[in-house]
Each structure stands twice: as structure tokens, then as C-alpha cells.
Amino acid sequence: MSALIYHESKLDPANAIHDHVLPSGLGWMHEIKAGQTFRIVDLEGNQAVDTLFYNAHDRADRYSLQDTIRAQGNIYLTTGSSLLSSEGSVLLTIVADTCGRHDTLGGACAAESNQVRYAIEKKHMHNCRDTFLLTIAESAGGYTKRDVTHNINFFMNVPVTPEGKLTFADGVSDKGRYVEMRAEMDVVCLISNCPQLNNPCNAYNPTPVRLLIWD
Amino acid sequence: MWSYVLKRHHILRLTDLQGGANVGTMLYNRDHFLERLNLPDTLKAQHTAKLTTGFVLYSDMGRLLCSIVADSCGWHDPLSGHSNRKLLEQKYGPSRYQEARNDFYRNAHDQFLIELGKWGLGKPDLVANVNFFSKVTVNEQGSMQFVPNNSRPGDYVELRAEMNVLVILNTCPHPMDPNPAYQPRPVALMVYPSPPVAGDDECRTSCEENVRGSILTDALFR
Predict the structure, then answer these.
(1) Among A1, A44, B96, B167, which residue is least crowded by beta carbons within 10 Å?
(2) How far is B138 from A207, CA to CA, in rounded Å?
(3) Interval B172-191 mean pLDDT
């Protein structure tokens, strides 16, 4: 496993059963059934997409950061990565990726962590945890804050050094890059299209992304 | 496995008695369990992928749960998570109480759920855990490597509670430990009141982020 295994998809967006442009600052929650394929397109480049997955039939069985990276022995997600759940199931497999180095350690921005990282006065700035909480509050699934666990950040670049340092660096993504994954079981996907302006995760310019699902 | 309420400004010292121990640990605000350890917030606020003296453990509400006020070991692992039943079976073979009695192989996932259950918490309350005394490095390509012999006999780490903290921990082997035998190592636990926390305390001032985090934490106790 390395940071990027470049692999293009053969799927045609014209055949997608779901095709939706999600502006920055908004959330999306949608079921993806076993066997369906899900693609996130970074339309304008270097947009962080905070993403969570749940077993559609048991939300306590959800994407697990530490189990996923330990099982593959690598902190970056790319083609071939299996997204593992807290019960050890494979939720999705990444089948195509034109960006690489998708982040697993950075988590979601939040009002309170923004106060720590930037300034006490920045509590009001829009953030992913707010989007997650609002999206689940408006969904029918009975999700609560306990279900908002450590998310993936597609297209975000968070390098780690052998000495144990970690930074939020300029993204390696670009206009039109995408990541595509196949659902291995019925899952629910929860996304916050990140609005963060205080670090380079969105190149200081949060932009829309395109979400597609194929049968 | 063990759970304990570490009161604010008390110190929990973990001592690795034989070397090679691993202490899987999760933390919660005792006064409000919904506030819990958040390792991504911890790592990004302090720009680190390892934990040692001078670093703090952040909750998901921008507050300090614990500061690492002393550490003779030098590296504790926030990345690798914890063992589960399937992993133990693959590594060490089957082991049931029926045959092994109290020597049956215990996995960390079950241990966490048992201790959490004593406080009315469950699967949705599992968080990314710290593995004290263990070291896992990451190379330029992102590959994770377990580094043996990180912790020596007598090595210790001290956690000072900055709020009232529910500590949930167990001494199951690290999930990447290459030892072909299941051999959890003993750890001594000691709790004592902290000396007064100075204005220029190392952890609270080690970076601007921790200064702000300390302000937000102190606000709970005014």
C-alpha cells in the first residue's frame, strides 16, 4: 500500500442513478446499497470532504479510523483501501482514485477546536461538526452526537513525518480529481463539505463537490 | 481492565514494570460523558503524531482532559487502535474460558466494552484510543511500523487530569505487537494529588493552542 495508487474509473456519469452537486458548508446523508458504486468529484481542486460511513442496519457499526489504517498498515487511503467498520466488516472498497493521500487523521473541524487552533473569538465560524449535527438532526435515523465519530477527509493532505510531526499542508488534489468506492454492504454515507477558512485544507477557498451513485 | 474517576488536578502514574507493556486508554468528561477524548483534535491542535511530555489529550469540546506531565519513555501511540476477538484468534489461536479458565486471551475491544458498560456507555461511545508505552512510526509513504523495545522496565508516564476524567484502560497487547505469544505485561497504577499548577506550566503553555485550550477548560470550573 502506498499513498497513491492511480486508477481511473470506467463508469459514465450519464448512467448514474444519483448525481448531485454539494456546495461547501452543506451536508448530505444518503444510503448506498451493497454493490453500488459511489464517486466524489473534487470539482475545483483541493476541497476537503469530511466523510463518515455506517452499517445501514446498525449505526453503532460504523467507520473506524484506527482499525482501517492498522489493517492496511498505512495512514493514507487510495485505490484498494478497505474502509473497515468498528465490528471489523468491510463497509466499502476504494476502486478508483486520481488523487491519493486521502487523510484519515485530521478529523472534522468544530467550533470548539477552532477556538483552540485559531482564536477564542472564532467560535462563530461555520464548521463540519455543526454540519454533521444539523444533518443528523434532520434525518430519520435517530443518529446523535455519539454517532459522530472520526471521519475521513477525502482530498485533504495531512503529512506525518517519521519523527512524529503532523501538519495540514497544501492539497495534492486538482480540478476534476475523484475517488470512487464500491459498497460491500448496505451503508449510510454522511458528508460535510468542509467550510474551513483557517488552514489550507480547502486552499482557503471552499468549493462544491459532485456526488454520484451507480447501480 | 480498569476504570476510574481521576479528579481534576490529580495525577495518574502508569509504570511499565517489565518493559514492553501496552495500555489502551479512552477518556471521558466525568461530569458529562458526551464530551470525550478526540485524538484527531489532539493531533492536529499540537501538530503531532506521537504523545509525550508537554502534550495534552483534548476532548471533542476544545478542552483538556489530561496533560502528560512526566514521561520517561518518550513515545506513546495515538494511531493504531486496539485488538479485537478476530485479531487475537488469527495471531494466537483460539482461547476460551472453558479450556483456559482465567488465562483465556482477552481482547481490548471486549475489555473496553465491559468497563464502559459499568458506566452505562456502549459501542457508540468507543473512541480512537491511545496506546501508552507503544511506538508506531509512519514513513514518507504513510506506512506504519511498530517499533519494539520502546518502553523499558520501570518506564512511567504521568497524566494530570485538567477536569474530572473517567479513565477506561486495559493492558491488552498492542494490536501490532510482533510477539507470537499472547503475553500482556503488568502495569502499576498510582494516583496522587498534583502539585499546584503554575502559570507557566509546561503543558498548558507548550503551544498557543494549549494556552487557549486551558482557558476553555478553566471556564468549566470558575
Answers:
(1) B96
(2) 31
(3) 98
